[in-house]
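QA checklist item 7 of 12: single-chain prediction sanity check.
[x] sequence parsed
[x] length recorded as 142
[x] structure emitted
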Amino acid sequence: MSMDHLGTLVVVEKFPSDFPFEIEGNPGLQTLTLKRTYQGEEIEVEVHMPDLVTGENGDDHDGDDGSEKATQSCLPLVVSVSKKGALSLEFSCISYPDQIEIESLAVKHPKSSEDEIAFKGPNFLDLDEDLQKAFNRYLKMR
């Protein structure tokens, strides 16, 4: 992906023929939506404009850990997994070149408004490590 002279995200690479998602552009917005169905679940990934890291001004994503990730470009994602008429899971994630990290998790009712959350649990990193691993595996499969 690259930026054109107007700051618009331009996809310059071809996707593999087995790429499982349908891609929807969102004209006027700095997002891209990926959709697919997996084992009866509707998966929707909203990809936000990238945080491009140039290393020129020392800015980083969270600025407080001094780790290698602080110097990598990342993509904020919101992944929604739902079944018809059932509660849905919404993962707020950060995608790095080599992995996706879950930042938070929420449960939503199917007929609630966009901002209405049925349950927003504790900070993801405060969950039991085995539960964190289980959610990461769950998300990776989708």
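[x] summary fact logged: The first strand starts at residue 2 and ends at 3.
[ ] second reviewer sign-off
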